[in-house]
Amino acid sequence: MSEIEIEGGPRVPCADGDTLLAAGLRAGLGMPYECNAGGCGTCKVEVTAGSIETLWPDAPGLSDRDRRKGRVLACQSRPVGDCRIRLRLDPACVPPVPPRRQRARLIGAADITRDIREFRFATEAPAAFLPGQYAMLSVDGGPRRAYSLSNIANTAGEWHFQIRRVPGGAMTGWLFDAPPASVELDGPFGLAHLRPGTRDIVCVAGGSGLAPMVSIARGIAADPNDGRRVHFIHAGRAAADLPGAGWAEALIGLGARLDYRPVVSGDDTGGLPRGFAHEALAAFAAGRFDDFDYYCAGPPMMMQALEALLLVEQGLPASRLRFDRFF
Ligand SMILES: Cc1cc2nc3c(=O)[nH]c(=O)nc-3n(C[C@H](O)[C@H](O)[C@H](O)COP(=O)(O)OP(=O)(O)OC[C@H]3O[C@@H](n4cnc5c(N)ncnc54)[C@H](O)[C@@H]3O)c2cc1C
Ligand code: FES
């Protein structure tokens, strides 16, 4: 156990093995971050006393200029003894549910598409998280990766994930080919979770971005006081990348309030409409972009196209969009 001092602010304990970011969030600090995976660069801090070890020295979230200036990624840095860091805390980043590390047993797995499988884990304690959040999963001695929850909080301690197999992938190799009996589950993380609102919502899921959008739609379905409709654009490269007819409707349970719109970018459309996620969104919301709040999850390229459409072209305020980029 060591101690992290925030310059001009509080001191927080850091348990063995924790990163600067995890320790800060466990203590309820508003530390800015997004992916917790070294990809986005949102969690940069300066270490002004003490030293740290870097988990992933080549993480793309840090530029050469950042490295020259002595900045580090809080999500990829573990303190070696006590240390002091400089950053600007943001009340908007205070975790709604502080993350915790716990053991999770694998209790089931089922294929959803040709390369997406749902994995269900169970913890002793209730599963506490908000729709749209994610957890870090790690296999003993193996990699540690972020995966979004596809279900909603529950007292049974169930955490469901919908994970796409990545050819040659370190973590997905374990999960698909040699599923461990249990993993370490650290969470919840993420600020792109469901917020209250009065406008209907549009969820845009690309590829493995399915899980958090399913969770958000299920969160609305489970709240008897939430009457919003959900327009769900689900993009894949081929028809085989999308679950069969009726799958989303049955799982989400929103009845007529769910408007599920699959779209396929490649030649193998299987009779589904053809286009990219941002094109499907542009066609759907033409002339009424302002009527909706937006939740989007998927690969960074897809997010760029959606940001260009919603923020730049349509001029919507950033507060109307929640993005989960899967680095
Ligand atoms: C917030 C978030 C939510 C996500 N949710 C989902 C989801 O619901 N479903 C899903 O299928 N995928 C999701 N992903 C992607 C997932 O985390 C993995 O990147 C993906 O499963 C591939 O992992 P892999 O180990 O099999 O592949 P690999 O190719 O071995 O690793 C891929 C990723 O691991 C990271 N990485 C690579 N090297 C290192 C290193 N040395 N140290 C630390 N990290 C490294 C990089 O981010 C890289 O993109 C999410 C990612 C993020 C950031
Ligand atoms: S939160 Fe650390 S790089 Fe994204």
TrEMBL record:
Molecular function terms from GO: 2 iron, 2 sulfur cluster binding; oxidoreductase activity
CDD domains for this protein: fer2 (cd00207)
Top-level taxonomic group: Bacteria
Chain ranges of the 2Fe-2S ferredoxin-type domain: 2-91
Annotated transmembrane regions: none
FAD-binding FR-type domain mapped to chain residues: 99-195
Gene3D superfamilies: 3.10.20.30, Nucleotide-binding domain of ferredoxin-NADP reductase (FNR) module, Translation factors
SUPFAM superfamilies assigned to the protein according to its UniProt record, in alphabetical order: 2Fe-2S ferredoxin-like, Ferredoxin reductase-like, C-terminal NADP-linked domain, Riboflavin synthase domain-like
InterPro entries for this protein: 2Fe-2S_ferredoxin-like_sf, 2Fe-2S_ferredoxin-type, 2Fe2S_fd_BS, Beta-grasp_dom_sf, Cbr1-like_FAD-bd_dom, FAD-bd_FR_type, FNR_nucleotide-bd, MRET
The protein's name: Oxidoreductase
